[in-house]
Amino acid sequence: MCQKLFNRRFLQNLFALALASLLMYLSLQISCPVFSNTCTTYYCKPVVQKSDLLSFQLNRTFVAKSSKVSFSGDNFSQVASSGEMNKLSASPTSSTVITSTSRDLFLSREELLKNISRNLDGLGLFETIDDEEYLKNHSDFFAPRVGVDNYLDHQILIQAEDLCLRDETFLLIAIPSVIGHKEERDAIRRTWLRSSETNAWPRARVKEKVKHVFFFGYKKGSREEDLKNLLAESVFYNDIVMVDFEDSYRNLTLKMLAALRWTGNFCERAEFFLKVDEDTMINVPLMIEFLLHARVAAKSEQFVVGRKHHHEKPEVVRNKDDRWVVGDLEYPFRYYPQYMLGHSYAISRAAVPVIVSTARRIRLVAPEDAFITGIAVKTARIPRLSARSFSMCCVVKYDCDVVWNKKVAMTSLDLLHLEKLWTSVAQQSCDDKIVFLK
Ligand SMILES: *[C@@H]1O[C@H](CO)[C@@H](O)[C@H](O)[C@H]1NC(C)=O
Ligand SMILES: *[C@@H]1O[C@H](CO)[C@@H](O)[C@H](O)[C@H]1NC(C)=O
Ligand SMILES: *[C@@H]1O[C@H](CO)[C@@H](O)[C@H](O)[C@H]1NC(C)=O
Ligand SMILES: *[C@@H]1O[C@H](CO)[C@@H](O)[C@H](O)[C@H]1NC(C)=O
Ligand SMILES: *[C@@H]1O[C@H](CO)[C@@H](O)[C@H](O)[C@H]1NC(C)=O
Predict the structure, then answer these.
(1) Residue 351 to residues 75, 110, 301, 304, 338: CA-CA distances in angstroms?
(2) Are 116 and 204 in contact (CB under 8 A)?
(3) I need a labelling partner for 365 at 20 to 30 A (CA). Which of 70, 85, 108, 408 fits?
């Protein structure tokens, strides 16, 4: 999760990112000698055989569907100088030529926005996560333990009354929050979470009913004024649930288990539980299409879907100074089971109560994503699917993929970035798509 700034995992990610950018930069230098003035970091990969090229005269807005695209030099720089970076729409007097191996590499912007379920095709959807070799000999660990009986029935202190009763909820969005983050909550409510309750989305219809809840623990020593404000917020929005356990980073696992338990008790008909971090934006209509696809792909009532951690074997933090340290007693192996990135993941309705009952009988560990989508899900033998359309942590160039309905989630957004991305969604334009190397 990207919020956990400056822990070791974050620094590792940052390093990997820097390395990846360097490699990408180098590969551009190598693969695009001809177009080096106008080539884009995003598209300019293979330079295709001349005889295979198709040319398009452009007077509409196009978005490239794959990396096998290049642009002809002179004409293209004219478009660039018009300031319409991503739009590639030529003025009537110029004729911009885009070359590609196949017409299919392009979708017009209109097409992209019109039929979003089409965008889900060919995105490398749904890789099944198999059992890991290195944990195969430890199946006795991934089983309910005698003598472990975690208390998960904490009392509800603030309730979102009858939230799911009024209509058939399809998607329950659960966002862990803390008292001090009113500004973050308001920003989310104002932007992509508007689709909750209203079913509104810029120029698209949210087909299914969406509800959301911000989840809190109880922070000892909270000022009475802050609690009063939170209560007022709860009365106003009816989207706050506070549960009676100590709210802390190390208790995030308890918080998500409380959210799952609450969903099982008070929103039990919701087809999907979607965990979303406060710094993450969801393309709600696309997410719904995506989950409908996932249900077919999973071939099972119970499943979890997200983006698998980019390290094949996510390592357990043993450094005692680290916020996410996990002791040998809690989890004895060097690596976690493959798990999902924590910024957003979805759990099917049938899997929700199973994860909660499993979590009562195994040792809890603090990193919530590793516990819920790794250890608990593996113990309960719930199938896991990984999909690329959940953006990877911290890669800003994927921004526009949310706008163009190609990614269901985008993370590492601060408030300014969130507002900017939402404006892009609302206006259905996005400037970061093509970056020119000068
Ligand atoms: C470009 O615009 C002209 C006139 O509006 C139209 O006849 C033509 O079909 C368009 N070409 C493409 C590729 O859309
Ligand atoms: C644009 O490119 C085409 C094909 O390469 C060329 O025929 C045409 O003259 C160019 N137009 C301008 C305005 O440079
Ligand atoms: C949208 O695209 C999908 C997949 O290509 C297709 O099956 C469906 O019929 C399309 N829907 C509309 C309304 O065009
Ligand atoms: C699992 O155990 C078997 C037999 O004890 C051993 O031969 C094998 O190497 C072990 N596999 C791993 C991945 O540790
Ligand atoms: C987690 O919550 C439980 C229940 O309130 C509490 O006893 C425990 O101290 C908390 N742990 C941390 C690390 O905050």
Answers:
(1) 54, 37, 7, 8, 18
(2) yes
(3) 408
Q: Atom 14, ligand 2: which residue's CA is nearest? A: 75
Inter-CA distances, 387 with 305, 384, 408, Å: 7, 10, 10
pTM of the model: 0.72
316 by Cβ neighbours in 10 Å (0-12 / 13-18 / 19+) ranks as buried
What 3-state class would DSSP assign to 153? coil
pLDDT tens, 382-394? Answer: 999 888 778 764 4
Is 135's C-beta closer than 6 angstroms to any atom of ligand 2?
A: no
pLDDT tens digits, 27-40: 433 332 222 222 23
What's the rounded Cα separation, in Å, for the pair 374 and 409? 20
336 CA from centroid of ligand 4 (Å) = 18
Maximum distance among all Cα pairs of the chain, rounded to whole angstroms: 78
Neighbouring-strand partners of residue 204: 201
Ligand 1 centroid, distance to 59 Cα (angstroms): 6
